[in-house]
Design goal:
heterodimer, A: about 550 residues, alpha/beta, Alpha-Beta Plaits, TIM Barrel, 2 domains, 8-stranded parallel beta sheet, 17 helices, globular, B: about 375 residues, Glutamine Phosphoribosylpyrophosphate, subunit 1, domain 1, 6-stranded antiparallel beta sheet, 10 helices, about 25% helix
Chain lengths: ~550, ~375
């Protein structure tokens, strides 16, 4: 017998199954078509329906039914065209006639695996709850026992160090006429150390980011360094950097990253003899907090001319970065070699540090690096970070929160007396709820020497639509409606790099003021309060116990 | 805020001078305690300069435990000084206050002083641990030519309690602190001045960077870096760490606790060294607001301020006798006949150093080096 499915649409999904339902108001819509034209997912389309309307035209009520053919904006029930809630339609609508609405009862994950392909997306972990960092408060306020500092009047030095720091006992010093001098004859290696601003822009590649976005970030940090005297640095992400930048004096504000695909490194290595300045540092990516254990993929349609030149690959091919470095055999051997090779490439003048995803095994990595005199730090990327593209399962369920990971690593260093020797960089979910300065200060007081931000700057500097309710999150498919993560000129031309740069500067300058507002009443102004755990408390006893800080209620 | 009085002289004087100076600054301390540390002792101790003095307080049982332990270690009691206690209202009397001079165990007599110092420190820590729980033994110092006396109460009342005015106790360097308790629970181990292996210091103000500094010191692997009932004890230990453990000249103490900005360091002739120290000893930056007054084993005394100069502090006097006090009225009480125009109020970059026997006053400026010498 023929199934009735075809007749009653039984195998079609209903709008209630979708995470976002487009609320369209017939009475306000003037049918301009901008919303349907701009929708990156083709979730809405102009459609024609027959409407039965009861109306009365005369002086006395004489209702009559009229059937009219009208144009409407219709939401698709095709799972591959589901509304992502980006609200670009709302942005372009001249009449406030349309907006997507989040549907908490959606059953999207039950269906988003057509063709046996698991759901892949860009964006960030879909967990809208506040992170541990947002449960921390600064509770040590000096008032009467101490003259409190004034954030507006006193001088503050909000700086940190990136690089391996020798303990004082190992510094090659000699005393001459009651004065200390560096003993140049000792032959001891003094590792390079950079003084930087403690908030870095984390690794986001040219390729993952659009040319306008990356240029905007790069201009922003250059302005901060050159004009405002704030040594903010930025990591390139995997995939190289433009030759013009590599050979410029501005390269000192950048941290080129080498990752498992080694993309762009042929071009970087060729540029070394022509570089007039050393880069700030080199980051070796072994893992990413947002998708631990998963590799990266720059899809073929993003690999256009500029990208292929920078990465040294043909145009229009998929560029997969494997989950692990294929040459890696063990941390003792290959990682040490890689750190040494990268150090050697710049004559041991550039700090080289690895980045790993937050993990319960972070301490094992840390302890190995502690014994490696060339390791310049350890960047730990927690689970709440953003990513360009990954499997949903990796993003939502894999990973380790940054707070306890950084704390236990720091306390482990304290136990060994090496808390000032190997800087810890914390990342992953900083500023998740918009509290960038508070989250930064909390991580520093837990033991981080610096923090790294990614998705916060995308949201703050370029109005990224994404959120933790899976809004937008299509960074992976090159259709970013804001023009942040796309290589499509039609889309990235929407983004003005000057505006991005301006926002980057505004973000860092306001961050600086907020950090002072936190540090001032705590009486800290000369050095960063790394590990000042008596300054923070949690309103959750379990968090307090785990982080070895006080509990307040 | 605690009140501080340090006097350095080329002649012996009584601790009553310090107490009198503290009295003039009375509104600044709340009677939560007074600490006295005497160095370069005179009187009966003058003959015993090479023998370690154990300063402390014991209960009836505690003194037996202490005797047993020191006998077992081989220390031989040579001389005992105890203050004549005069009951005073508001001061709770403990059983036994003492400063006892010992001779080293036989197997240590010929050993170098470094090893003797190690033994003294080890013994002091062991005694402290023995009596910590029930406060049956409290030891402040165990070192040659150093005597420490501490108790809870108002300085003047304590002087009366210990009969200091009638005592023969005198020294060439005496540090005294009248406490304003900011450590919540009054604990004698939180009472300044602190002392370790020849280095002593006292401070006023709150140490906001206490926890990272404590963690750094405690992880240096040196047994003496313990205690920290007061957040100011770390200042003494940083001094010891910088000068004794690392062997740096005293002026670098200032660079360690209040490092210069990187741009300022560039102007120094030893910029390379200053930059390396700033980075390597980053956790020891004190971050103020503090005035630190200290002494080193050779009898040099100094005063430094935090990087923002948030605390008062003045140095003044005449050749042969100088006072380092937290308030000028304290200095007036010690040496009223001095040229006040020569008083030094150290600013944020300065370290005022008085050479042994109060012969010279020098100012070390972090940016400009030695600036003023008065002798």
């Amino acid at each position: 017998m023929e199934p009735a499915a075809r007749l009653d649409h039984n195998h079609e999904l209903t709008l209630k199954d979708f995470p976002y339902i487009v609320r369209w108001r017939d009475d306000r819509c003037n049918r301009c078509g901008r919303c349907t034209a701009v929708c990156p997912m083709f979730s809405i389309e102009p459609s024609v329906v027959v409407q039965r309307i009861v109306q009365s035209d005369g002086a006395t009520p004489e209702p009559k039914a009229v059937r009219r053919v009208v144009t409407v904006v219709k939401q698709s029930t095709d799972i591959d065209r589901s509304c992502i809630g980006c609200a670009t339609c709302t942005l372009v609508c001249p009449n406030e006639a349309i907006e997507p609405e989040y549907n908490p009862q959606h059953k999207f994950y039950f269906h988003k695996n057509k063709g046996g392909h698991p759901y892949r997306r860009g964006g960030r972990r879909n967990n809208p709850l506040p992170s541990t960092l947002d449960r921390l408060r600064f509770t040590r306020i000096s008032m009467l026992t101490d003259p409190a500092l004034d954030a507006g009047r006193h001088e503050f030095r909000i700086r940190t160090y990136l690089g391996r720091i020798l303990p004082a006992e190992e510094l090659p010093m000699k005393m001459i006429n009651g004065k200390l001098e560096v003993d140049k004859t000792s032959g001891l290696f003094i590792p390079p150390v950079r003084e930087i601003y403690p908030v870095m822009i984390g690794s986001m590649s040219i390729g993952a980011l659009s040319p306008t976005m990356w240029e905007g970030l790069a201009m922003g940090i250059t302005y901060l360094n050159e004009v405002d005297g704030m040594p903010v640095v930025m990591c390139s992400g995997e995939g190289g950097m433009p030759q013009r930048l590599l050979k410029s004096r501005f390269i000192k504000y950048f941290i080129p990253q080498i990752a498992s695909g080694y993309f762009g490194w042929d071009e970087i290595v060729r540029a070394i003899p022509h570089m007039i300045e050393d880069p700030c540092a080199i980051e070796i990516k072994y893992g990413q907090g947002a998708k631990p254990g998963d590799g990266g993929l720059l899809m073929a349609h993003k690999v256009l001319k500029l990208i292929s030149e920078i990465r040294g690959v043909p145009m229009g091919v998929d560029l997969p970065s494997p989950p692990t470095h294929q040459t890696k055999y063990s941390i003792e051997e290959s990682v040490a070699k890689m750190i040494q090779s990268m150090s050697m490439a710049w004559g041991f003048r550039v700090p080289v540090y690895p980045k790993i995803s937050g993990t319960r095994t972070a301490k094992a990595v840390l302890n190995n690096l502690v014994r490696n005199p060339y390791a310049a730090g350890l960047s730990i990327d927690g689970e709440d970070g953003g990513t360009g593209a990954a499997y949903n399962v990796s993003m939502d369920t894999m990973g380790h929160p940054i707070a306890s990971n950084i704390r236990e690593c720091y306390l482990d260093l304290v136990k060994q007396g090496k808390q000032n020797e190997l800087p810890l960089i914390a990342a992953g979910g900083i500023g998740k709820k918009g509290h960038l300065a508070a989250n930064t200060a909390a991580l520093i007081m837990l033991g981080a020497s610096a923090v790294s931000i990614g998705k916060y700057i995308m949201q703050a500097a370029a109005d990224c639509n994404g959120d933790e309710l899976n809004r937008c999150n299509v960074c992976n498919i090159g259709k970013c409606p804001r023009g942040i993560t796309t290589q499509d000129p039609k889309l990235y031309r929407r983004l003005d790099p000057d505006k991005v740069a301006e926002r980057v500067v505004e973000v860092f300058k306001s961050l600086d003021v907020e950090l002072k507002k936190i540090f001032a009443p705590m009486g800290r102004s000369t050095e960063l309060p790394i590990g000042m755990s008596d300054g923070i408390s949690s309103d959750d006893p379990a968090i307090a116990e785990r982080l070895q800080i006080s509990y307040v209620c | 805020m605690c009140r501080l009085v340090a006097i350095t002289s080329n002649e012996y004087f009584s601790p009553m001078e310090n107490v009198a100076a503290l009295e003039t600054m009375k509104e600044g301390h709340d009677g939560s305690g007074m600490g006295l540390v005497l160095k370069n002792l005179g009187g009966e101790f003058g003959e015993l300069k090479n023998y370690p003095i154990l300063s402390g307080i014991c209960s009836e049982e505690g003194i037996h435990t202490l005797d047993d332990y020191l006998n077992k270690c081989g220390f031989k009691l040579k001389y005992t000084w105890t203050p004549k206690i005069k009951p005073v209202k508001c001061v709770t009397r403990r059983d036994y206050y003492f400063a006892r001079v010992y001779d080293y165990p036989d197997n240590y007599k010929e050993k170098p002083f470094e090893e003797k110092e190690g033994l003294l420190l080890k013994t002091r820590i062991a005694l402290r641990k023995m009596g910590e729980q029930d406060e049956s033994i409290i030891v402040f110092a165990f070192y040659p030519d150093i005597l420490a006396l501490k108790e809870v109460g108002d300085p003047l009342q304590l002087a009366e309690f210990f009969s200091l005015a009638k005592s023969s106790l005198k020294a060439k360097i005496i540090f005294a602190q009248g406490r304003q308790n900011t450590n919540y629970v009054i604990n004698l181990y939180a009472c300044h001045p602190f002392f370790i292996q020849g280095y002593g210091s006292m401070t006023n103000g709150e140490n906001t960077a206490f926890v990272p500094i404590r963690e750094f010191l405690m992880s240096r692997g040196f047994p003496g870096y313990i205690g920290y009932n007061s957040d100011s004890e770390v200042f003494t230990h940083i001094l010891h760490y910088a000068c004794k453990r690392l062997g740096y000249p005293l002026t670098y103490y200032k660079d360690i606790i209040t490092p210069l900005k990187t741009s300022e360091i560039e102007t120094r002739s030893d910029s390379e060294v200053a930059k390396l120290l700033k980075i390597s000893l980053r956790p020891l930056c004190i971050d103020g607001p503090n005035c630190v007054i200290g002494f080193t084993p050779d009898g040099t005394c100094f005063m430094v301020q935090d990087a923002k100069k948030l605390r008062p502090g003045v140095v003044g006097g005449v050749k042969g006798k100088y006072g380092l006090t937290s308030e000028e009225c304290g200095l007036d009480s010690i040496i009223s006949k001095r040229d006040k125009s020569q008083d030094i109020f150290p600013m944020k970059y300065d370290m005022v150093i008085i050479t042994p026997d109060a012969q010279e006053v020098k100012i070390w400026n972090q940016l400009r080096g030695w600036t003023i010498t008065t002798s």
